[in-house]
Amino acid sequence: MRPRNLFWLLSILTTFLVLSSACVPQNTTPPRSLPEAGAEAYVIGPEDVLEISVWQNQDLSRTVTVRPDGRISLPLINDVQAAGLTTEELKNQIAARLKPYVEVPNVAVIVQQINSWRVYIQGEVRSPGVYPLRSQTRISQAIAMAGGFTEFAKKGKIRVVRKTRGATEFIDVNYNNILSNKSVQDDIYLRPGDTIIVP
Length: 199
Prior knowledge:
- The protein has helices at 3-23, 87-98, 139-145, 175-179, and strands spanning 49-54, 62-65, 71-74, 78-81, 107-113, 118-123, 129-132, 158-164, 167-173, 195-198.
- By secondary structure, it is of the alpha+beta class.
- The longest helix is centred in the first third of the chain and has 21 residues, at 3-23.
């Protein structure tokens, strides 16, 4: 083969390889991140340990435990309702109560220990009782924590009783749908204080 023909052949081959690689679909989809745990604002509950910090005022700063009645005690303002509030709401409430005593109260509320995340499991499970939660937990995981169902359990008629800011919500769950993957929505995330009733 003549050098000139060889040169043209190599040029055509190189062009073909470049165009072929350009036509291969590239993965331009950004990597999927895990859902952010606790995307909803955390709601303070009884027995949670809170650090209340008032900027440039150590006398008013405290580390306190939320009492069973949902309140905490702080200097000057005495009892403050904490349970049922987010840290932002509690911060604003404390700041408002401190205004008569502090010109510009700059308050921070930090949850040091989460002790109020509990759910109650009743009825036809092998180990009914109160179970602490350390992370986001679905109803299927909670049932497993309770040892699973008894042979008499009506899996299609589970009810979750949830109290939200004074209102009571009833959520019906069909566990058979969870088992058959018909409805992932039935495998709800639990919230602190939820009661699972398995008839």
